[in-house]
Every structure is written in structure tokens, then in C-alpha cells.
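FIELD: query
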Amino acid sequence: MLKLYHTPLSPFCRKIRMLLKEKDLAFELVNENPWERRREFFALNPAGEVPVLVDGRRTIAHSTAICEYLEEAYPELGFLGESIEERAEIRRIIGWFDTKFNFEVTENILFEKVYKRLWSYGEPSSEALRAGKRNIAYHLDYIAYLTQDSQWLAGNRLSLADMTAAAHLSTLDYLGDVNWDAHPRAKEWYALIKSRPSFRNILMDRVMGLKPPAHYENPDF
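FIELD: result
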């Protein structure tokens, strides 16, 4: 059976979990706290970062590498598009959220509010938090732009682009930092993600000492 080392609020882990579920692959979740710096985990990934996927004798680290591996190793259900144009666009949007959104929003909110404390890096930066909350509006508007002619970010079917964006936004939604009412089109798109069975267990994650807002699990929020 596949084994995924993850941390509950990591968007990069959540993306892999959703992909595994959408592909209908059985897997075991192993909770890993990278800040504990376990020697056994470093043996799996010298970078000491989650996610890490173990498939038999194969160990794959980094979310992009894991996604590509799963698409090639288990191609029956694919989420990277069919044509070369579709694949290029899906990968572009994945890069947008895993790089640009992560740098401008996720790291400024999730890292400051949660991981900074866990890594013993000091108090959250109010300047970073303000920047993250300011930047998120631009990205929600971009989601509205991408979905103006279709339900999904990269066309007429769910893809890894949607999973990536939803993974990042779900962690911020857990912290109550997404103003959905100000962005109704992005809210409609996210409601589609929340209603999928593959996202159900992700929304049931809880972090000790942090309670999500009442709407967090509700697809009809």
C-alpha cells in the first residue's frame, strides 16, 4: 500500500491527498512533524520536508515530483490534461499557486500564524500578516477570471490546478483568513471542491489549539 508522510495543514500535502483519493488509490497517512527533525524521516528525505510518498521500494519527495509520479505510475485517471496545451496550462496554474500564491499569501499567513511557533522562530510578523491578507484578494479575483467560462481553473474538468489552489486556500480558510463573501465567483468554485468526496477527510483535519470557523466543513457556506 502507498504511504504518505504528511502534516495536516500543509497545502502541499493536502494536494497529494486529494489526488490520491481522486485516483481511487488506497494509501496510509503517516503524520510527520518536520520541526521534530527525526533521523528516520531524514533518511527518507534529506531535505526533511513533507510530503514524502513511499510506494513499495520507491520513495518520492516534493509535491511536484509526487504528482508527476502518480500521473505516470497510475494513469487510469489523469488530472494533468490530455493535450499538450492543456498540460502546459495546468502546470502553469499549479506553478502560480505553489510558487506565487505560496510566497505572497500562504507563507505570510500560515507560516506566521502556525509554523513559526512550531519551529520556535519567534512571534508572528504583523507586517507579513497584513501583506498576506492584502494579497489574497488579488488571487481570488484571478480564480474568478479563470472560471468565468468554465467550472474549473483549467477547463471543463477537475485538474491538478484546482487541487493545488484549493489545497492552499483550505489551509487559510481553516485559519479564518479568506473573505469569501467579497469574492462570490471564487466561493462558487471552492464550494465545488468542498463537495467532492476526495476533500472530505481533509476538511476533518484538526490542529491542537486551533479551531476552524463554523463554515469550514460546510460545502454550502
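FIELD: remark
The mean pLDDT is 97.
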